Amino acid sequence: MTIAMPLQISVLSQDNCYLLYPGVDEDVETAMTRNLDPTEGPLTTRPTAADRARELLDPARCRGLITHAAGYLQTAGIDIPATQGFGQQLMRTRFYAGIYQLGRPLGMRVASALQAPGQDEDRARTARSLRLHTGQTVLDIACGPGNFTGTYGQVVGPDGLAIGLDASHPMLARAVADNPGQAVAYLSGDAENLPFRDEVADAVSCLAALYLINEPFRAIEEMARVLKPGGRIVLLTSLAPGGRRDRPHVAVMEKLSTVHMFGRDEITDLLRGLGFTEIEQVTAGLAQTITATKS
User: Fold this and answer.
1) Domain boundary among 30, 49, 76
2) Is residue 15 one of the residues assigned to a domain?
3) What is the pTM (predicted TM-score) of this model?
4) What is the predicted pLDDT for the residue at 193?
5) What are the φ and ψ backbone dihedral angles of 61, each rounded to 5 degrees?
6) Strands 287-294 and 276-284
7) Which of 50, 76, 102 is the last residue of a domain?
8) Burial class of residue 263, CB neighbours in 10 A (0-12, 13-18, 19+)
9) How many structural domains are present in the chain?
10) According to the model, what pLDDT value does residue 3 have?
11) Does one domain contain both 99 and 208?
């Protein structure tokens, strides 16, 4: 049973219960809490993907939730970082959410010297790199309109869970409309301060977005925190020309584009320091894809 209520607010307590603010209909409160309290015995209805996503949240990192009218979960008590450049500002607009389907594939093909695969192949390859299978939980960080999140949901099936997280409300609204699914939930949040408990995910991806995050290395550390031992990570991001950031023209490129250009070894060295193994890096033009396994 799905309950859709605009601006319905629930507060996380330390035992992961969700307490609705006074004034919410009692029947709705009963229905909401029935699927969240394991002491009440067998479930009378199957928990929705949103219900199961709530169970992964850390009350210390997310003090509450708002069920937005567009259908995604909006975190409370988390400050979304301010935009620091034109690229970030554009990503959070309705205009960009509308043209994203055309802009992203074209941009990635140009950045990768026209070696990027088509959209369907791209999604299937990423799911294989994450080693997804039925029943798993996967997080898609900076998910945009949910193109990959929706595919992940199909791969993990109804017993699995695919959660797309993004800071852009227009993107999340587009994701709910274009890429829903029985095993798919969308959540607003900050990649630098993920609202999840430690070690809740079997796989994590961040695709074509890391270069626009204010503190990208902190975001990677957060992805490592929420990933289970043995879990897989896939990162698709920028690469400085020649793999070096110490050249003057790279600083000019970053200033003009507001895109962070990563050195060849910056991300792989960080992952290695965080205890990841099976680290593989594929570079093409100004793009790089990195896959790894958490020890």
Assistant:
1) 76
2) yes
3) 0.77
4) 95
5) -110, -15
6) antiparallel
7) 76
8) middle
9) 2
10) 42
11) yes
pLDDT of 104 reads 52
Range of the domain at 132: 86-294
> Identity (one letter) of the amino acid at 199?
E
Q: Which tokens sit at 35? A: 């699927």
Q: Evaluate whether residue 130 is within a structural domain.
A: yes
Phi, psi of 226 (to 5 degrees): -85, -5
Residues comprising the chain, all counted: 295
Q: How far apart are CA 87 and CA 254, in angstroms?
A: 11
Give residue 14's identity as a one-letter amino acid code. Q
**What is the pLDDT at residue 20?**
33
Same domain, 16 and 99: no
Q: Which residue has the tokens 């997280």?
A: 165
List average pLDDT for each run of 10 residues in the chain, which is 295 residues long: 44 40 34 42 74 95 89 78 53 46 49 53 93 98 95 97 95 95 96 97 96 94 98 96 84 77 96 98 93 98
CA dist 46 and 227 (Å) reads: 25
